[in-house]
Amino acid sequence: MTERIIGNQIRLIPYYRNDAVSLPWYRDRDVCKQVDNRDAPYDMELLHRMYDYLSTHGDCYYIEYEGELVGDVSLQDNAEIAIVVSKAFQNQHIGRRCVLEMIKLAGEKGMERVKANSYPFNTQSQRMFLSVGFKKIDTEWYEYRL
């Protein structure tokens, strides 16, 4: 897995353990609700379990925006895309550009489709997935055919 460059502002850096940077994203209750529909923030054990799973079941990257790590994105072996952008950097089309890059990676891997989960109340993520060409296939699932 190698670094991926998106324009001149975004780099996707292969995951490495960096708790000091990533734990604050998952300590934000709003972000936890958006991503996992949970009211409680992550602790270190849950953070490690999540990243260990994502990094051993696909490709997991940190999102670097203008030199600062601002989130993570993954493409799992089962074709599921997951993305988290810290609250301060949401609504700047960073997530959209990273999802498009994961679609490109899926094509390189020979996948015929990718899918993403978004809870019904997370209209922000739903709009983003629809804007890049995903179709809603179930209450919480979106699919993009390559």
H/E order of the elements? EEHHHEEEHEHEE
Measured by DSSP, the beta-strand proportion falls in: 25-35%
Average pLDDT level: 95
Spatial separation of the terminal alpha carbons: 21 Å
- Largest sheet geometry: 8 strands, mixed
Counted beta strands: 8
- What is the radius of gyration? 14 Å
**What low-confidence regions span 5 or more consecutive residues with pLDDT below 50?**
none
Morphology? globular
Number of helices: 5
User: Share of helix among residues?
Assistant: 25-40%
Q: Largest beta sheet: what is the strand line-up?
A: 1-2-3-4-5-6-8-7
User: Based on helices, strands and strand pairing, what is the structural class?
Assistant: alpha+beta
Descriptive tags:
146 residues, 8 strands, globular
Brief synopsis:
The protein is 37% helix and 29% strand. The protein has helices at 19-27, 29-36, 44-56, 94-108, 123-131, and strands at 4-6, 10-14, 58-65, 68-76, 80-85, 113-117, 135-136, 141-145.
Walk me through the structure.
It is a single chain. This protein is an alpha+beta fold. It is built from five helices and eight strands; from the N terminus they run E-E-H-H-H-E-E-E-H-E-H-E-E. The protein has helices at residues 19-27, 29-36, 44-56, 94-108, 123-131; strands at 4-6, 10-14, 58-65, 68-76, 80-85, 113-117, 135-136, 141-145. An eight-stranded mixed β-sheet has the order 1-2-3-4-5-6-8-7, with helices on both faces. A hairpin with a 3-residue loop joins strand 4 and strand 5 (80-85). The chain is globular. It starts with a strand and ends with a strand. The relative contact order is 0.15. The model has no long low-confidence stretch (mean pLDDT 95).
